[in-house]
Amino acid sequence: MNQIKPLGKELSDRPEIGIAPGEGHLNIIFEMSLDMICIADIATMTFLMVNPAFSQVLGYSSEELTKRPYLDFIHPEDVGPTRRVAEDYLRKGEKVIRFRNRYRCKSGGYRWLSWVSHPQTQRGICVAVARDITDQIDAEVKNAELSENLKKTSSLLNAVLDAIPDPIGVQELDHRVVRYNRAGYDFLGMRPDDVPGKRCFELIGNPSPCTECATSEVYRTKQVARVEKYVPEVSRWLDVRAYPILNESGELSQVIEHLRDITREKEAEVELRAAHERLLTILDSIEAHIYVADIDSYQILFINRKMKEDFKCDPVGATCYEALCVEKIPCDHCTNSRLLDHNGAPTGPITWEGRSTVLGRWYLNVDRAIRWVDGRMVRLQVATDITRVKELEQERARMETQLQQSQKFEAIGTLAGGVAHDFNNLLMGIQGRASLMMTELTASHPHREHLRAIEDYIRSAAGLTKQLLGFARGGKYEVKPIDLNELVASSAAMFGRTKKEIRVLSKFQASPLVVEADRGQIEQVLLNLYVNAWQAMPDGGELYLETRTVTPDAAFCRAHQAALGAYAELTVTDTGIGMDATTRQRVFDPFFTTKEKSRGTGLGLASAYGIIKNHGGMIAVESEKGHGAAFTIYLPASEQPLCREAPPAGKLVTGAGTVLLVDDEEMILDVGRSMLAKLGYNVVAVKGGRQAVEHLSRLDGQVDLVILDLIMPDMDGGKTFDRIRKIKPDLPVILCSGYAMDGDAGEIMKRGCNGFIQKPFSLSELSNKLQAILQLFARA
């Protein structure tokens, strides 16, 4: 370490400085001072002396500092200001001057120095003390920069807060407001000067904190708090959130309150909820099954009311195949794999029909892929119950079958009627001749036995024509009000006596079951049903008969092409072998039979069908193989009084008078002429209606009765009857036909025809019919 030179000695060697020798204590201060001390020549602006602190701060030796003007060490920017300070110093003669400037260090940098200068102008020197304030200046600069940054940050934060459209405020721990952003002041309708120092609840006119206050919750928990509430003072819904501000000790110092106006969201939420309720109401009012299921997992996501009620469950969350089809794997008809293309886009609606295994009903299903609320693709199915449509289709098919069957019966019936008519004419010729021959023979004559056999054969043949006419148009004979209960009971009793192996059980309606029908025809129907049942029970069995009054519904009547109304119902049930579906469908077809050729012609049930249809009724069958059969007959119920049967005809009754016989068949004219003559009548036989009208016009007053054929060419029986009535209004007319008394014959009878006789008829039947008509007119 360099030896410190005595300052006093050094200064004493410089008399111009004017420091006296012996001042050693100044030397110690000069050398030991931590501040920079120098003595400078005012005129030359050079350092005369510098202490060690000078060299330590700037890095120069004292020799380097005293050889050059001190202006060479000053920062170029500070040279001018330093010179001006010196000039002012000299001009003003100030004793102490303070200033700052930067000095260059030997290392290349600059240090800030703070000077206190004491000029001694009379001696031409200046004694100055400098202190290194570089760190202080840096701190000041930094503080200035920090202050500026804080100003900028504060300005930015204020701008950000004011730009936020939601009200934001800062509160003290007693709810006193520090400040709000611009939106807060606007929300309250106040100026910034109106707010500070006031409590938040006071700003809206409340005497105490609001209920459900988020700020109060922060005071209590020091955690973020949130509430939604309606503020009636401003008629708005607010989402209020409060955030704690903690100091360095973790203690709550202030609270930030953030208010967001959610009135529109609340209104939208209400509207959305209302729209949701409306949509659910619509979906639940639709009488169809509507549900949504995930395409990948098959999980049911939504189901409407109708489906819940029908399935009696709420299967949301379960798979559709488990809940709706009771299956363990997806159904074969599932459309999930076809609802999306290879790009995952919907392929459009897929329509299909299916029958629910759970409900047993038919549905028309429309499936389509839609995007669900969470973004995934799901299957929407709308299923409409088409069971009634299916039933109507089946009913339509049955009606078409019925229509085809009716058309078939009509065609066959027309043919059968024509055959029966012509056959009856032939039988009439045979019957007439046999009757005439019988009158010529004594009781012991050997030929009488043959003639009786011929009449038996004629009756058998006539029975066959009755069966043909049974399903032909015009199959009824004499229609009268009869008690179906009595008819069924008597026919069943007769059948039971002949078939002892069949047990007949009956359950009849207590009151008479009146229908307007041809007794003989209905007896034939019953006999055909009894025989059919007997043949279905070769080893014996039971036959159940039940009657009652019913009113079938419109669909049933429509399917059977029958009128609405009350019907007498007769059910004939057997315990026989039953029928399969094929046999059941053809059971009423003419000439269809499952029996051996010797046991049936296939006309029994066909004629029964025709007879019932001709009576305006219906007939149906139910049967299964091995479970017997049930035939049900429906005949229109009647309120007419019952008609009592007349006693059978007796022996031949002869008569007198002239009979006009009208027919287009020579055979009928020949035999009819002979039969009438045998009975004692004068006979005028004419061929056809025109000749009858001409002869009647010429034979005025000479005809007592007309026997008129129904079916004739050119002018038929109906037209001829009308012409006769114009010529002879009171002349008795008996209508004669190979057809039954129905259709055209019935219409003629309604127009005033006096009687009807069915071909073939015997001589005794003819005599009784003529006698009854003539006696009736004689009494009149």
Describe it.
By secondary structure, the chain is of the alpha+beta class. 41% of the residues lie in helices and 23% in strands. The protein is built from 24 helices and 27 strands. It has a 5-stranded antiparallel sheet, with helices on both faces. A hairpin with a 5-residue loop joins β9 and β10. α13 runs antiparallel to α14 and α13 packs across α20.
Q: What's the SSE blueprint?
A:
Elements: H1 7-12, H2 24-32, E1 36-41, E2 46-50, H3 52-58, H4 62-66, H5 76-92, E3 97-104, E4 110-120, E5 125-132, H6 134-163, E6 168-171, E7 177-180, H7 182-188, H8 200-203, H9 214-221, E8 225-231, E9 236-246, E10 252-261, H10 263-285, E11 289-294, E12 300-303, H11 305-311, H12 320-325, E13 350-355, E14 362-371, E15 377-385, H13 387-440, H14 447-470, E16 480-483, H15 484-498, E17 502-507, E18 514-517, H16 519-536, E19 541-550, H17 554-559, E20 567-574, H18 581-586, H19 604-614, E21 618-623, E22 629-636, E23 658-663, H20 666-678, E24 682-687, H21 689-698, E25 705-709, H22 717-727, E26 733-737, H23 744-750, E27 755-758, H24 763-779
Parallel strand pairs: 17-19, 23-24, 23-25, 25-26, 26-27
Antiparallel strand pairs: 1-2, 1-5, 3-4, 4-5, 6-7, 6-10, 8-9, 9-10, 11-12, 11-15, 13-14, 14-15, 16-18, 19-20, 20-22, 21-22
Helix pairs in contact: 13-14, 13-20, 14-19, 15-16, 16-19, 21-22
Number of strand segments: 27
Estimated helix fraction:
40-55%
Helix count, DSSP H or I runs of 4 or more residues:
24
Secondary-structure content class: alpha+beta
**Major pleated sheet:** 5 strands, antiparallel
